[in-house]
Amino acid sequence: MERCVTVLDQDRDKQYCELCGKMENLLKCGRCRISFYCSKEHQKQHWKKHKLTCREADKTKIVPQTPQQLEKPADPKLISSETDSSNTKPKPQTQKLATEYIIPCMNKHGICVVDNFLGEDIGLSIQEDVKALHQTGKFTDGQLVSQKSDSSKDIRGDQITWIEGKEPGCEKIRFLMSRMDDLVRSCNGKLGNYSINGRTKAMVACYPGKGTGYVRHVDNPNGDGRCVTCIYYLNKNWDAKEHGGILRIFPEGKAQFADIEPKFDRLLLFWSDRRNPHEVQPAHATRYAITVWYFDADERARAKEKYLTGAGEKGVKVELNKPSEPS
Question: Is Zinc included in the keywords of this UniProt record (predicted)?
Answer without folding.
Answer: yes
